[in-house]
Amino acid sequence: MSIENIKVPDLGDSSEVEVIELLVSVGQSVEENDSLLVLESDKAAMEIPAPMAGVVKSISVNLGDQVSTGSEMLSLEVAESDAQDVVPAKEPEAAAESSKVEPAAEPAKVEAPTPVPAAATATSQTIEVPDLGSDDEVEIIEIHIKEKDAVEADDVLITLESDKAAMDVPAPYAGVIESLLVAVGDKVKTGSQIAKILAVAPQAAQEEPQAKQEAQPIEKQAASEPAATPQQAEAVPQPAAATGNDSSKKIYAGPAVRKMARELGVNLGQVKGSGAKSRILKEDVQEFVKKKINAPASQGVAVSTIPDIDFSQFGEVEEVQRSKLHKLTAINMQRNWNSVPHVAQFNEADVTDLEEFRAELKGEAERRGVKLTFLPFLLKACAKALLEYPQFNVSLHSSGEYVIQKKYVHIGMAVATEAGLVVPVIRDVDQKTIWQIAEEVIELSNKAKNRKLTAAEMQGACFTISSLGAIGGTGFIPIVNAPEVAILGVGKTDIKPVYIGGEFVPRKILPITLSYDHKAVNGVDGGLFATYLGKLLGDVRHLAL
Prior knowledge:
Dihydrolipoamide Transferase, about 30% helix, 15 helices, CATH 2.40.50.100, seven-stranded mixed sheet, 4 domains, alpha+beta
C-alpha cells in the first residue's frame, strides 16, 4: 500500500475556482472515476473524479476554498500496482524518466487517467428549446445565428412567439454553431432541437443524458417504491444523494441555475435535484416554481372548487378556450389574493394644474414626436414617493424573518391586450426625465399589444400601476402583484366642485386607490404614501425637488 496525493487537474482558462462540495470523507473507499469533489468557476461547475481506486486518508481542502491547477485536494491509500499505473499521468517528469527504462510501456502510462474537467472538453452538443410551461407549439419568428458563428453563453440564438409574448432562447454555453436544425416560421415546443454546437460544454450539459436516467430511480426511492435493481442502485451514488436537498449544506448547482433561482426568488435548499449526483438543474427550478404557483392555498386556508354545471339545460351554450395568458393571470391573481392580506387606501388628487401644464407641452411633444399622456407624470410621481417611503419598495422573504430592501426603482404598468393582461416594466424611473419615460411607455405599450415583449421586459418591478382611466369608473381595488407589496389603481379624471377661497370652483379630480400587503406595510404608512402622492400630482413643481 502507498499514499498518493491527488491534485487539481488542468483547469484550462480558469485560474482559481471554488470548492462548492465535498463528495467523500476520510476513511471512505472510492473506485476509479468516482467523483471526489465539485469545483465551480464563473462559467460552470465541474466534478473531479478519482484517478484510481483507494481509501481516502486525508482531505486538504474545505468548502469555499479557492484552488487552482496543481493544488493538493486529498490523499488516497492505494495498492502498489494502482500507484505505479497512475504515476505517469500525475507526474509527467517521472513518466519521462521511466520511459528510458521501459519505453514500450510509455504510451499506456501517458494515456492513463489524467482527469480532465468536463468544462474544458470540446464536444458536439444539441441545443434544445427550454421548458415553455406547456406542450403547445410556438413559432420561430427570428434566428440570430448562422452556421460557423461563434457564440458566448447566454447569447440569443432564436426568438419564439407564443400567445403571451416573444421570448429569446439563449445559448446554454459558449461554442461554435455546427448546424442549424430550424428555420423561421417553424413550429417548435419544449425539447425541440434548435442547433448543434461544438462547445466547451458545462458539466451540467454533459450530464444531462445521465441525469434523465438517474432521475427516475431517485424519484422511486423518494416515493418509497420497491427497491431498485442492482443496476439502478449503481446509478444513484450514495455519498452525494442527500446533499442536493439538504438546505443546511452547500447547494449542488451551477452558476446558471443559481442565477435563475435568484431571479425567481427560489430557495435552492428547497429544490430537489434530478441531475447526476442530485445536481439541481434549470428544469428542477422551473418545476419547483410551477408547483408553488399551482399549489392550493396553505396555512389552513381551504379553497373550495366551484362545481361545474351543465348550462346547456338552460339554453344554447358554447365552450370558448381560454388563452394561456388568461389562465396564467387567473392562477397568479388567485395566489396573490389568498396569500396577501389586502388593505386599500382611497384618495383623490387635484390634477388641474398638472393637466394645464401637460397641455402647454403639447407643441414641444409634437416636435419631439412623442405623445405625452398623463402616465409618465404618474410614473415619475410614484418613483419619488417610493424614494420618500422606501418601506413600499421591498419584498418579503418567504421565511417572514426579513424583507429585501430594493435600491432601484422599477415600475410596472398594466397593459390590456387581446391575449390578456401583461405588465411591462420601466426601469430606473427615478433617474429618467418625463420625455424619456414617455418614449418608453409608448415603446413598451406597442410591444405589448403586438406580443413582442421579452421575458426580461416583464420582470423586476418594485411597484405596479393599473390605470382604468380611459375606460371609466370612479375607482377599483387592484390586487397586489406579489412579491411586490403595493399597487396603485387609477380611475377616470372627473370635474368636481372644490371649495377654494370662499367659493366652489371646478377642479379636475383623479381618484386613486393604493392596495398594499398588510404583512409588510402598516396602515399609517399607506395613508402617508397616498397623501404624499396626491401632493406630488397636485403640484408638478414638487417632482423637481
